[in-house]
Design a protein that fits this description.
Mean pLDDT: 85
Low-confidence stretches: 1-33
Number of helices: 9
Radius of gyration: 29 Å
Shape: elongated
Largest sheet: 11 strands, antiparallel
Number of strands: 25
Length: about 500
Amino acid sequence: MNNSFFRFVLCLIGAVSLISCTETTGTIGMGLVGNLDRFTVSTDTFGITTRTIYADSIYARGSEPCLGCVTDYDTGTRIRGNFTTQFFIHDGFAFPKIDSIRSTDPPFSTLTDTTHISIDQVVSDSVKLMVFTKNVTGDTLAPLYLNVYELDKPIPDGKDYLSNFNPFGEYIAEGKKPLKSMVFTMSDQTLDSTSVNAICIPLNEQYTHKDKNGVEKTYKNIGTYLMRRYYHSLADKDGAFDNYNKFAHNVLPGFYFEIANGEGAMATVFGTNLATYFQQWDCDTVPRQTVFTSFVGTREVLQTTNMEVNSAAVIDLMNDPSCTFMKTPSGLYTEADLPVLDIMRGHEEDSLSTVSCDLQCINVNNESGKSYQPSQYILMIHADSLQNFYLKRKLHDEVTSFIAVYSESKNSYELSNFSSLISFMYKKYKEGKKTDNSWELKHPNWNKVALVPVSVVTTLDTSGNTIASAIYNNLSLTSAKLVKGRGTKASDDVRLSVIYTKMTD
């Protein structure tokens, strides 16, 4: 009998003890023994069948994108990550009053601090575009060639974008030149006096933009354009800076970051920041100072991901008969057939107290001898509910969807109790068979679950407990090779442990 049984008995004793507290002390012992005698507990194990499924594109909305290019250890092929982002405008966004704006450039540098300036005299001294990164994988010294494109128009919000989304053609004209091209590495990207890593992209080149009448105007840099556009918006009262949607449609549609060449490193992107620097003067007693105003891109605004993966090589892994895989962003996940009818056979009147399973990982054995880390979290969910889970931005409910955490010490994922899912599937099965004898054939996925790598965003509830606030597809570099389930009760197979309870007369 396994540890799960003893845990159950302890919980049962605790529950009965609480009930017995209402009795006199002389009858507590008799009540406890009497209640335990009314329960029959039994256990069993069942094998499950698993297989690898390949999704050539996955739902990417809300997921943190990746930037870089690496060779996949398992397939020997390249994986390249690119992404787009729009920028957030917070409530009450504002540049300083126009008369306080100065510049280090002549003739503005010679203006007295009491001089009134026009909108077309406003100048940004410099502009920095920062891409904030984490979880760098690979060689941090590997050179990567980056192109940054300005989108021709905003990518519509309210739509669902997959991981193979490509903005060229509809949102970036074919043959358009990038706003910036540069070589960078993931090393030496730590911001001064912080532990935050960021790719710094200077945007100090001349910038050309068409106004609302289609007339092209050239500015010192994109920051100068943004500042003048802001002051014209105030004067015209057009609301272009009221929120990020108006900003995207009337000022700046967003950027696309593309790795054009190079290989060896990839990082997860958790934000972008477009900062425009200028001189500001407040009054006679305060000297000029260099300040900046920022526009930020995070998962709260629209971001899309473009992951390029060699599908032929991935399909070879999918067909490996010795194991199953969960790999991101390659699109491999594991599907399992749960033996619902076998579990319930002969126990139709019993209660399912616990159904648990350990998904054991296998150490890497590819030619390189290297592997990416397993995903910290995986989602187990009814196979037919997977897409809807992401589209409706659901959280796991511990009824039909569950989160398992990777244990480094055990090298496995433990699904501690999903008895409610078995009960849910069995109920659906019985209801379907009542009205349609061929229901099982018409619903081939009725007892299948998907095991998918996910990213979990957590927060604290009012009691200080850590809870999930959002769940997204994991698009970072992860890889887990799992023991393959063959549907037997052999000790080296993937098995479910089941505890039944039954009330006796």
